[in-house]
Automatic annotation (TrEMBL):
Its EC number is 2.1.1.33. It comes from the Bacteria. Catalyzes the formation of N(7)-methylguanine at position 46 (m7G46) in tRNA. It comes from Novosphingobium beihaiensis. The keyword tRNA processing applies. Gene3D superfamilies: Vaccinia Virus protein VP39. It is an enzyme of class 2 (transferase). PANTHER family: 3-DEOXY-D-MANNO-OCTULOSONIC-ACID TRANSFERASE/TRNA GUANINE-N 7 - -METHYLTRANSFERASE, PENTACOTRIPEPTIDE-REPEAT REGION OF PRORP DOMAIN-CONTAINING PROTEIN. It catalyses: guanosine(46) in tRNA + S-adenosyl-L-methionine = N(7)-methylguanosine(46) in tRNA + S-adenosyl-L-homocysteine. Keywords: Methyltransferase, S-adenosyl-L-methionine, Transferase, tRNA processing. This is tRNA (guanine-N(7)-)-methyltransferase. The lineage of its organism: Bacteria, Pseudomonadati, Pseudomonadota, Alphaproteobacteria, Sphingomonadales. Belongs to the class I-like SAM-binding methyltransferase superfamily. TrmB family. S-adenosyl-L-methionine binds at E62, E87, D119, D141. Pathway: tRNA modification; N(7)-methylguanine-tRNA biosynthesis.
């Protein structure tokens, strides 16, 4: 995750957390070497639909996509939209590349995804204001200790940036299974009611996964292995 100076959505801090785990398998390494350079977000310059996909289209951005299941399924659902995902963990990037490439021939390749291996907020800062239709933050690292709260992605600086990059009527989706992070996120979003409208009429709206919200591998593990409750939040940009 990335730490921000309080209230400053433009000053990047250092990236926290691990960047790699167990060695990649040969097939995964081949995807990192050969496919990733072809679909990587450019290292410099504005990040737009035209620069990434050659035409204007609705843009989606996922922060910390994990293994890429959600991003790949959403992109497959919406082939006329463009999807940008950022993830600092190379093993997650490799898994996402497997999905994008068609799961080793099991499915057709997905052509409307672009990937950044690194800091999501650096890429997000290069997206023009009002350009995003959807922004996703699913099961971010909770950093549960109070002294690490500034490392959480859900803080005032990043949320201000989310608001700036979403078009009016655009949607911010947030999910977590961690009660400490849940309380922190709700507190932060309460300070941003001038920017976001919470799309919630009843408890079931945040207790049940909405339609069109694919389940991630992490979410399934949280429920089935650890018995955690999972919460789902949808906010509309005012």
């Amino acid at each position: 995750m990335t730490a921000y100076k309080s209230g400053d959505p433009t000053t990047l801090g250092r990236l926290y957390g691990r960047a790699k785990g167990k060695p990649l398998r040969a097939g995964q390494q081949a995807l990192v070497d050969n496919l990733l350079p072809r679909i990587a977000v450019p290292a410099e310059g504005p990040v737009t639909a035209e620069s990434l996909f050659g035409e204007a289209r609705p843009l989606h951005f996922e922060i910390g996509f994990g293994g890429g299941e959600h991003m790949a399924q959403r992109a497959d659902m919406l082939p006329d939209h463009g999807f940008i995902g950022a993830e600092p963990f190379i093993n997650g990037v490799a898994q996402a590349l497997t999905h994008v490439s068609g799961d080793n021939g099991a499915h057709p390749p997905i052509g409307n995804v672009r990937i950044h291996h690194g800091d999501a907020l650096e890429v997000l800062s290069r997206i023009p204001d009002g350009a995003l239709s959807f922004l996703y933050l699913l099961h971010p690292d909770p950093w549960p200790k109070a002294r690490h709260a500034k490392r959480r992605m859900m803080n005032d600086g990043p949320v201000d940036m989310f608001a700036a990059k979403l078009r009016p009527g655009g949607e911010f989706r947030f999910g977590t299974d961690h009660p400490v992070y849940l309380r922190h996120a709700l507190m932060v979003m309460q300070r941003h009611t001038h920017q976001f409208e919470w799309l919630c009429d009843k408890p079931a709206d945040f207790q049940n996964r909405p339609g069109g919200w694919p389940q991630t591998r992490y979410e399934a593990k949280a429920r089935k292995v650890y018995g955690h409750e999972v919460w789902y939040f949808r906010y509309r940009r005012k």
